[in-house]
Amino acid sequence: MENEMENREVAIRLSGVKKRYKLGQIGGGTLQGDLQSWWARVRGKEDPNTKIGTDQRLVGQTFMALNGIDFTVYKGEALGIIGGNGAGKSTMLKLLSRVTAPTEGEIDIYGRITSMLEVGTGFNGEMTGRENVYMNGAILGMTKAEIDAKMEDIIEFSEVREFIDTPVKRYSSGMYVKLAFSVAAHLDSEIMIMDEVLAVGDMAFQKKCLDKMRDAAQKEGRTVLYVSHNMNTIRQLCDRCIVLDQGKIVFSGDVEEAISRYLKNNASPMGTKIDLSQSRMAHLSPQVQAKITYLTLQGKQEPVYSFNERIPFEIQVLSHKRIEAPCIRLEIRSSEEVSVGALYMHNLKCIKPEQINRYSFVLENLRLAPGRYKALIVLYEVNQFGSYNDLDAVWPGFIFDVVDSDNSIPIIWNNRHWGNVVFECI
Fold first, then answer.
1. Which segments of the chain belong to CATH 3.40.50.300?
2. CATH number of this structure's domain 2-266
3. Cα–Cα distance measured from residue 349 to residue 117, given in angstroms and rounded to the nearest whole number
4. 317, β-bridge pairs
5. Phi-psi region of 141 (alpha: psi -120 to 50; beta: other; left: phi over 0)
């Protein structure tokens, strides 16, 4: 296997690549102030421009986003890049896209690159969709005639034909993604770089994009680098995968083994534990008396469920007062934030002050069509008169994907026209 790969044509090669960022304050605002601060550091004295009480521990320290990366990507290969938040995935793609330069090491790229590092990358908001296509093509070195020849295919694939001559600043995030991906997929480039951008589009378009990227690698011989937290799309698209952890490659090889290694390193014994302490809804006071602190998706290392699978979960609540009749409402919404349904939990045991209160629930018969969903979690209480008031609300409480892995839905479900719930026929 290794000998076969060595005989293939190289598309990208990284050797000893490091990216270092400086933490703390970069400049004091004036040249005089910067010189004073620098001279104080040289002499080991206190910075005269630092405010009293400011923690100076991070000043002058560095953060290694990437710390010695070595790998090779071959022409026609679809490479997946996975890792936890802060592992260095996006930094690596920015280096490959030449958005920033490495601190140390060498990066050799053989071919033209199109990249999507975030929604609307490379687009000028004041220009129309059509004008942005021409601009992106010109950046790649294509002539107007070459772009004209591909324009119709780009518009057709993007599904935004009626808005193609509208300034892209008026596009929704989904329209941005559709046009940006269509441009990246159809313009002449040997290397495509994608960073978790397909999560914004609808499921039908995501499937079309995955098929297009698979064809680009297998049939057109183009190289694809794809970063995603959705292991299902990594499985569908990639034929090799690397795992990043704290700026280093900890595994490179088979996709399933890479996913298993990643999930093992990031799993909680209880399942996926999600910190909700910083997810307060804006309308609530920061001084709320009761807070939803954690949610654990039990028995799951990643929030991906098959059609009709149950979702067992646990919610933790911390309160500064006793609450006699607490209730919890779980609202499921689609990726477009359209309400799909709700689960109400009443008759819960009272919330005791200054201790962890745990509540376990099961969302049964998950008959949601394949797609991405978000959950709003609301903690409220009912008073003696039957009225209720919200104590806490977190959004999103958690995000999960529903996949049709067992072909229980024999058609491609159209969420836009048919909704998100698949009703059972008895």
1. 2-266
2. 3.40.50.300
3. 47
4. 292, 357
5. left
Report helix, strand or coil for 147.
helix
Q: CA 128 → CA 71, 117, 201, 400, distances in Å?
A: 39, 20, 20, 34
**For domain 271-418, which CATH number applies: 3.30.930.10, 1.25.40.10, 3.40.50.720, 2.70.50.60?**
2.70.50.60
Q: Which two tokens stand for residue 149?
A: 């020849």
How far is 198 from 201, CA to CA, in rounded Å? 5
Residue with tokens 């969302």: 363
- In sequence order, the β-bridge partners of residue 371 are 402
> Which helix (H) or strand (E) is 177 found in, with range?
helix 173-186
- Nearest Cα to Cα of residue 322 among 346, 349, 344: 349
Between the CA atoms of 260, 242, 311 and 403, what dihedral angle is there, to the nearest 10 degrees? -110
CB atoms within 10 A of CB 344: 10
Return the beta strands (E) in 204-280 as ranges: 223-227, 240-245, 248-253, 271-275
- Residues 50 and 88: their CA atoms lie apart, in Å, by 31
Tokens representing 319?
Answer: 């309160």
Q: Read out DSSP for 13-65?
A: EEEEEEEEEE-S----SSHHHHHHHHHHHHTTPPPTTSPTT---TTTT-EEEE
User: Which residues, in sequence order, are CB contacts of 268 under 8 Å at separation 6+?
Assistant: 296
Query: For residue 222, which of 6, 9, 3 has the smallest C-alpha distance?
Result: 9
Token code pair at residue 2: 């290794």
**What pLDDT, in 10s, does the model give residues 342-391?**
888 888 888 888 888 999 888 886 788 888 888 889 998 877 777 778 88
Tell me the three state secondary structure of residue 366.
coil
| Residues comprising the chain, all counted | 426
Angstrom distance (rounded) from CA 258 to CA 79: 11
Burial of 140 (0-12, 13-18, 19+ CB in 10 A): middle
pTM here is 0.59
Q: What angle do CA 123, 84, 176 make, to 5 degrees?
A: 20
- Give the pLDDT confidence of 166-223 residue by residue, as tens digits: 998 888 777 887 888 888 788 778 898 888 766 555 667 777 888 888 888 888 888 9
**Span(s) in the chain for CATH 2.70.50.60:** 271-418
Block residue for tokens 């059509």: 130
Cα–Cα distance for residue pair 224/316, rounded to 1 Å:
41
> Are the beta carbons of 80 and 242 closer than 8 angstroms?
yes
